[in-house]
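Quick one, probably user error.
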C-alpha cells in the first residue's frame, strides 16, 4: 500500500535527522535536574512503577531492525532486470515455437533451455551478492550486552540489558560492556575504550565533570564529553556509576545503526557500465528483431518461422556469455588481490577501486601502525630523534642513518636517568612466550637481527607499551626493575594527570620516587632539573627552553610525557607510604629529567603509496576522530598534505565543529557552497569528525561526481563504508559490523594494499574492454546470416544453436584469458577514468568490434559458406532466393521401367541415405553432350523456379504436373559441371552399382548423376553452417591476438599470457569436438567437416591481424592523428 505524503515526509525527516550530529544535552544538566527529569535518585535508582512509565515513554533498550524484503522476493527480483527479461522472453518464444512445430525440431527446445539456464545462473549469483543490511544488523546484535548491574527500588539487581530504561542507575566495572548511553555520576579511575566510535586508540578518562579544552571552555559535544559512556563501548579500567540517558535507537550506537541500514548501497561503476551496455545492445537486438520480423511477414514467410528467426536475431545480438565473462574475470582478479592481502567480498568492487577518484581513509591502524612509538626525547636541554629499534643490531643501523635531526646520546647521564624513570614508572610488561609456553628471554633475543621487539604483545596502555619497547633494546627492563623493586604506587587518574611510584634502591640508599605524566603538571612539582650529569635549579631560562621544546613536540602531533624523580632522603624502604587522606611523603621538590614524545607512526610503505596515488591523480583524504594537530602531523608525514600546499592555501584541515556549523545552515544552497569551498582544496584532512560527519563527507563528494573509496575499522564507519562507492574494512582491527558493510577487507590493515587495489582495478577495466571488444566482434558474423536470410532468402548460414556454442562455448575461455593480461606502462600515471565519459563500451569500441573486425569476420564466414555449398553441388548463383524453401520439397523423376514418379537421388526407405547410393533410386541417363541440370542453373531468385514447374526440362516431360513442385515456390537443384578450388580429389562417382559418399562434389564426367533428395539438401546446408561456425573460430584467433593490446604491437607485448595461449587451443579443440563427435552432431546440428574446409578462413584471419597491426603502427607514429581519435578504444 502506498504511503501518504505525510508518512513520506515523516520518513524523510527521520532520515535527515539521522545525518545530524549527536544532540544530547542531558550530560550538561545539573544532577538535580537529571534526577527530576527521569524520576530517580543515585542511591535508590528507579522505582518499579517508574520503570514501567519510562519504558512506555522511551521503549525497550533494543535497536529497531530494518524492514526486510523476504529472501524469495529478493531472488525473484533478480529476474526482473531488462537483460534477464529479454532472455526469458526469448526462451519462452523458443518453447512456444517448439510446441507448435509439427516436425518437433529439437533446436528450439534446446535453445529455450539454455536461455533459461543462463538467466537462472546469473540471477542466483546476483542474489548471493546482495542483502547486506540484514548482515549489518546481525553485526550490531552481536555487539549488544546481555546483562548489566543496576539499582532499582534501592536494591542491587542484575537485569537483561534490553530491560534498561532512561533513568536507570547502572554500575560500571572493569571489562564491562556499556549497556546504554550513560551519564557518569561517580568514577574511580574510570577509563573507557571508545575506539570503535571515535577511532582514538588511547583509553579515554571518564569523570563526573565535563572536561575543558585548551582555551578553558567546557567540551559540550557528546562524543568528546568526559562524563559520558556510550552504548557497546568497553570499560577499560576502573569503576563508576551512572544514569541511563539514552536507550535503544536513542543512543549514539542506535543512530549509527540507523545510518548503516538506511544508507543505500551505491551502484558500482562497472555495474552501471554493464547495465547501460545491456540496455543499448538489447534495444538494438529488439529493434532488429521486430524490423526483420515485419519484413519477413511482408515477404509471406510463415509466422512461426518468422518468430523463430526473430529470436535468432535477438540471440545473435545479445552476448549471452558476457556477464559470465565479466564475473569470472573479476573473480580471477579478486583471487590475485587476495595474494596481496586484499579480500574482495563484492566482485564488482575490484573495478570500482580502479575508478576511484578519492580515498577517504581512516587514520589509526590504516595510515598508522596503531602502536604508540617513541619519536623524540628532550633531555640535557636538547631535542633528539629517538626512534625505537626492533633489536640491538637494528638500533645500531638506525643511529648511523642520516637524518634531519640529531640522534640521542645513549651514554649521556641525563638520557640514562630518563630511561630509568620511564622503565620504573611503568606498569607495562611483555607477554612474549616461547613455543613451549615459557616466557622468552628478551635480553638474549635483543641480539637476534630477525627479532622485532616492536611487534611483541604487552600489557598496559599504549603509551606505556611504547616506552617499554624503547627501553628494552637499550637496557633490559626486567633487570632495571629487579634492581629497584616497587614498594608503593599512585596510579594515573584524570584529576592528577600523573602516575607515581616509589622503589627500593637497596641497602644503604634511600627510596627512589619516580613520576611521569602531563608535562606541565610534572614540571609544576619540580624545583630542579637534571642536565648533563648535574642537578640545577629551575629558572626562567630553563622554563623558556622547556616551553619551546614542549610546544614544538606537541605541534608535531606527538603525545608528550614529562618525567621526574627524587631520592627520599631520610626515609627507608619499610616506611608505610600512603596517599590517603594525603601523601605522607614530599612531592613538591622533585627533579625534572626531561620529555619523551610518542606518536602512532605511519605504516611502512604508506608515504610512498600516497605519492603513487597523487601521481595517479587520486586524492587521499584523512578522515579521523583524532585531534586536528595530531591528524595534520600524521598527514604531513604520509604526504596527504604538504607544506607547499599549506603555504599556498591548497591544503586545509576541517574540524568536526565546522561541519556541525554547516549542517545548521538553513539554506541548502548556502550549505552546499560551504561544502564546495572546502572540497575545492587539493588536500584535505577531516579531524574530530563523527559518524554522521563522515557520511556527509562521502555524500557531498559523490554529489560532485567523485568515485569515493572509504576505509574504516570501527562501528562508526559502517554507514560511510556502505554509502561509499566502495567500502574497505580492516581485517585485523576491524569490527564485524564494519566488515559486513564493506565490499573489500584489508587483511593486513595496510593502506598500501588499497593502492595495489587501485592498480588492479584499473587493469581489470582495461582488460574488460579488451574482453568485450573480443566478444562483440563475433556478433556481426552471428547477426548477418539472419539478416541475409530474411532479406535475400539465402539458406541460413548459421543456426541459433551454433551461435550459443560460440557465445557460451568457444569464446568464453579466450575472453576470460584477457583478464590475465599484464598492466600497461602508464596505468598509474594517468588520471582515473571519467565515469561520465570514459565508458566501458564507447563508440570507438563499437566501431572497432562491429564495423571493422566484425564485418571482416562476416565476410570470411560467407566466403567459407559459399565455398562449401559449392563443393556439395550448390553453386552461388542458385542460392539467393531459395532459403525459405530449402529441403522443403522433393525433386521428382520417373524410374526407368516404372511409370510412377518417385523422389530422386540418394536413398531408399530404410537405407543410410547420407552415405550410400540406393540402386533403386532414380537415375537419369545422360551423355557427354547433355547436362540434365543445365536448365536450372539460372534458378536463383524467387520466381525463376518456373523452369522446373513448366517442365522445360525434357527429363521431366512425362511427369504429371500435379507431381511437380508448386509453381509459386522457388526451386533449386545441384549444379553439375562446376569444379571448385576447395574441392577434394577423392570425390566419388555414382552409378547403379557404385557407392557414392555424401561428401562428394558432383560434376559433369559423362557418368550417370543422381539427383539430390531433400535429406541430402539438409545435410549439405549443415556442412556449410558447420564450416561457417569453424570460420568464426579461425578469425577469432586473430581477433584474440589483436585485442591483447590497444596500441602496442603484438610483437612488443609478446605472448607471455599462458592462459591466452591455452584459450586459443581450447576454442579450437572445442570446435573440433563439436564437429567430429557423432553424438554432438545430433545435438548441435554439426557435421564432420572435411579438413580442407577449415582453410578458406585462414587468409581472412591473417588479413585481420595485418590490418590491426598497421592501424596500431599508424596510431603510435601519429598519437594526435585522427586514427587515434576515432579508433583508439
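Nope, works fine. Designed sequence:
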Amino acid at each position: 500500500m502506498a504511503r501518504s505524503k505525510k508518512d513520506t515526509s515523516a520518513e524523510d525527516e527521520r532520515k535527515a535527522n539521522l545525518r545530524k550530529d549527536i544532540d544530547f544535552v542531558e550530560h550538561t544538566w545539573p544532577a538535580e535536574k537529571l534526577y527530576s527529569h527521569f524520576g530517580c535518585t543515585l542511591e535508590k535508582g528507579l522505582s518499579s512503577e517508574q520503570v514501567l512509565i519510562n519504558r512506555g515513554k522511551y521503549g525497550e533498550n533494543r535497536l529497531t531492525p530494518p524492514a526486510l524484503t523476504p529472501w524469495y522476493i529478493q531472488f525473484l527480483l533478480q529476474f526482473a532486470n531488462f537483460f534477464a527479461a529479454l532472455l526469458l522472453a526469448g526462451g519462452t518464444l523458443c518453447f512456444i515455437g517448439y510446441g507448435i512445430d509439427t516436425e518437433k525440431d529439437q533446436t528450439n527446445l534446446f535453445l529455450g533451455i539454455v536461455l533459461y539456464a543462463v538467466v537462472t545462473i546469473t540471477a542466483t549469483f546476483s542474489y548471493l551478492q546482495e542483502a547486506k543490511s540484514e548482515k549489518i544488523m546481525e553485526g550490531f546484535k552481536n555487539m549488544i550486552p546481555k546483562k548489566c548491574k543496576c539499582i532499582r527500588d534501592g536494591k542491587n539487581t542484575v537485569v537483561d540489558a534490553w530491560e534498561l530504561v532512561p533513568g536507570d542507575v547502572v554500575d560500571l566495572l572493569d571489562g564491562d560492556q556499556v549497556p546504554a548511553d550513560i551519564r557518569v555520576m561517580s568514577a574511580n579511575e574510570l577509563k573507557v575504550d571508545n575506539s570503535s566510535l571515535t577511532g582514538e586508540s588511547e583509553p579515554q578518562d571518564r569523570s563526573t565533570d565535563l572536561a575543558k579544552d585548551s582555551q578553558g571552555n567546557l567540551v559540550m559535544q557528546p562524543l568528546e564529553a568526559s562524563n559520558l559512556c556510550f552504548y557497546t563501548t568497553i570499560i577499560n579500567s576502573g569503576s563508576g556509576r551512572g544514569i541511563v540517558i539514552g536507550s535503544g535507537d536513542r543512543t549514539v550506537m542506535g543512530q549509527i545503526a540507523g545510518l548503516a541500514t538506511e544508507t543505500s548501497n551505491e551502484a558500482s561503476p562497472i555495474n552501471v557500465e554493464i547495465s547501460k551496455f545491456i540496455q543499448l545492445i538489447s534495444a538494438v537486438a529488439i529493434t532488429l528483431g521486430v524490423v526483420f520480423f515485419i519484413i519477413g511477414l511482408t515477404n509471406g514467410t510463415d509466422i512461426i518461422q518468422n518468430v523463430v528467426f526473430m529470436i535468432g536475431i535477438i540471440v545473435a545480438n545479445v552476448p549471452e556469455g558476457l556477464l559470465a565473462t565479466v564475473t569470472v574475470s573479476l573473480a580471477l582478479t579478486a583471487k590475485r588481490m587476495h595474494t596481496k592481502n586484499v579480500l574482495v567480498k563484492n566482485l564488482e568492487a575490484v573495478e570500482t577501486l580502479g575508478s576511484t577518484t578519492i580515498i577517504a581513509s581512516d587514520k589509526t591502524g590504516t595510515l598508522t601502525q596503531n602502536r604508540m612509538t617513541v619519536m623524540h626525547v628532550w633531555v640535557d636541554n636538547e631535542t633528539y630523534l629517538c626512534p625505537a629499534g626492533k633489536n640491538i643490531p637494528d638500533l645500531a643501523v638506525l643511529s648511523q642513518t642520516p637524518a634531519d635531526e640529531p640522534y640521542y646520546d645513549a651514554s649521556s647521564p641525563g638520557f640514562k636517568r630518563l630511561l630509568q624513570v620511564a622503565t620504573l614508572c611503568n606498569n607495562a610488561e611483555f607477554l612474549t612466550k616461547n613455543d613451549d609456553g615459557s616466557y622468552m628471554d628478551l635480553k638474549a633475543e635483543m641480539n637476534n637481527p630477525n627479532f622485532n621487539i616492536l611487534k611483541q604483545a604487552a600489557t598496559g596502555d599504549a603509551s606505556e607499551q611504547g616506552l617499554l619497547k624503547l627501553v628494552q633494546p637499550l637496557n633490559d627492563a626486567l633487570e632495571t626493575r629487579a634492581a629497584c623493586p616497587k614498594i608503593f604506587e599512585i596510579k594515573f587518574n584524570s584529576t592528577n594527570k600523573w602516575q607515581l611510584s616509589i622503589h627500593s634502591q637497596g641497602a644503604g640508599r634511600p627510596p627512589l620516587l619516580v613520576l611521569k605524566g602531563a608535562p606541565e603538571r610534572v614540571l609544576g612539582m619540580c624545583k630542579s632539573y637534571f642536565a648533563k650529569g648535574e642537578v640545577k635549579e629551575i629558572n626562567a631560562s630553563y622554563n623558556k627552553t622547556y616551553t619551546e621544546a614542549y610546544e614544538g613536540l606537541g605541534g608535531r602531533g606527538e603525545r608528550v610525557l614529562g618525567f621526574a624523580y627524587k631520592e627520599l632522603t631520610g626515609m627507608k624502604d619499610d616506611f608505610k607510604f600512603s596517599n590517603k587522606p594525603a601523601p605522607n611523603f614530599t612531592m613538591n621538590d622533585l627533579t625534572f629529567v626531561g620529555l619523551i614524545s610518542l606518536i602512532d607512526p605511519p605504516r611502512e610503505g604508506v608515504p610512498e603509496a600516497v605519492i603513487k596515488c597523487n601521481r595517479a591523480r587520486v586524492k587521499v583524504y584523512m578522515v579521523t576522530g583524532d585531534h586536528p594537530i595530531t591528524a595534520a602531523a600524521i598527514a604531513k608525514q604520509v604526504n596527504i598534505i604538504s607544506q607547499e600546499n599549506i603555504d599556498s592555501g591548497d591544503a586545509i584541515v576541517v574540524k568536526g565543529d565546522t561541519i556541525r556549523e554547516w549542517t545548521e545552515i538553513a539554506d541548502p544552497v548556502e550549505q552546499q557552497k560551504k561544502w564546495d569551498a572546502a572540497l575545492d582544496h587539493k588536500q584535505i584532512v577531516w579531524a574530530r569528525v563523527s559518524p554522521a560527519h563522515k557520511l556527509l563527507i562521502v555524500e557531498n563528494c559523490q554529489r560532485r561526481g567523485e568515485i569515493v573509496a572509504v576505509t574504516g575499522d570501527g562501528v562508526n564507519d559502517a554507514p560511510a563504508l556502505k554509502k561509499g562507492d566502495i567500502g574497505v574494512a580492516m581485517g585485523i582491527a576491524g569490527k564485524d559490523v564494519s566488515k559486513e558493510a564493506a565490499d573489500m577487507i584489508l587483511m593486513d590493515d595496510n593502506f598500501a594494499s588499497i593502492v595495489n587495489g587501485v592498480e588492479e582495478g584499473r587493469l581489470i577495466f582495461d582488460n574488460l574492454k579488451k574482453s568485450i571488444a573480443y566478444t562483440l566482434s563475433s556478433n556481426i558474423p552471428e547477426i548477418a546470416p539472419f539478416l541475409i536470410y530474411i532479406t535475400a532468402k539465402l539458406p541460413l548460414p548459421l543456426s541459433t544453436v551454433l551461435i550459443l556454442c560460440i557465445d557460451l562455448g568457444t569464446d568464453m575461455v579466450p575472453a576470460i584469458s584477457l583478464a590475465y593480461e599484464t598492466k600497461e606502462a602508464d596505468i598509474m600515471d594517468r588520471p582515473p577514468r571519467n565515469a561520465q565519459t570514459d565508458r566501458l563500451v564507447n563508440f570507438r569500441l563499437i566501431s572497432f568490434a562491429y564495423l571493422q573486425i566484425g564485418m571482416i569476420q562476416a565476410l570470411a564466414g560467407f566466403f567459407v559458406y559459399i565455398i562449401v555449398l559449392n563443393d556439395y553441388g550448390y553453386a552461388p548463383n542458385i542460392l539467393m532466393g531459395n532459403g525459405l524453401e530449402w529441403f522443403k520439397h522433393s525433386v521428382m523423376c520417373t524410374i526407368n521401367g516404372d511409370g510412377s514418379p518417385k523422389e530422386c537421388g540418394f536413398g531408399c526407405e530404410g537405407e543410410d541415405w547420407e552415405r550410400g547410393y540406393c540402386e533403386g533410386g532414380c537415375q537419369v541417363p545422360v551423355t557427354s553432350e547433355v547436362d540434365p541440370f543445365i536448365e536450372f542453373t539460372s534458378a536463383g531468385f524467387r520466381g525463376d523456379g518456373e523452369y522446373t514447374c513448366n517442365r522445360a526440362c525434357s527429363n521431366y516431360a512425362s511427369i504429371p504436373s500435379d507431381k511437380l513442385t508448386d509453381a509459386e515456390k522457388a526451386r533449386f537443384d545441384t549444379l553439375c559441371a562446376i569444379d571448385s578450388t576447395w574441392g577434394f580429389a577423392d570425390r566419388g562417382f555414382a552409378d547403379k552399382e557404385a557407392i557414392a559418399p555424401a561428401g562428394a562434389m558432383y560434376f559433369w564426367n559423362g557418368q550417370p548423376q543422381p539427383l539430390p533428395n531433400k535429406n541430402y539438401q539438409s545435410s549439405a546446408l549443415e556442412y556449410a553452417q558447420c564450416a561457417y561456425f569453424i570460420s568464426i573460430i579461425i578469425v577469432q584467433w586473430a581477433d584474440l591476438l589483436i585485442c591483447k593490446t590497444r596500441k602496442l604491437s603484438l610483437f612488443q607485448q609478446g605472448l607471455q599470457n599462458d592462459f591466452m595461449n591455452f584459450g586459443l587451443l581450447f576454442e579450437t579443440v572445442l570446435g573440433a569436438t563439436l564437429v567430429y563427435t557423432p553424438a554432438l552432431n545430433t545435438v548441435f546440428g554439426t557435421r564432420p567437416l572435411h579438413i580442407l574446409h577449415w582453410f578458406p578462413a585462414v587468409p581472412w584471419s591473417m588479413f585481420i591481424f595485418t590490418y590491426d597491426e598497421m592501424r596500431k603502427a599508424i596510431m603510435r607514429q601519429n598519437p594526435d592523428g585522427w586514427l587515434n581519435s576515432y579508433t583508439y578504444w
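The chain has 40 helices and 28 strands.
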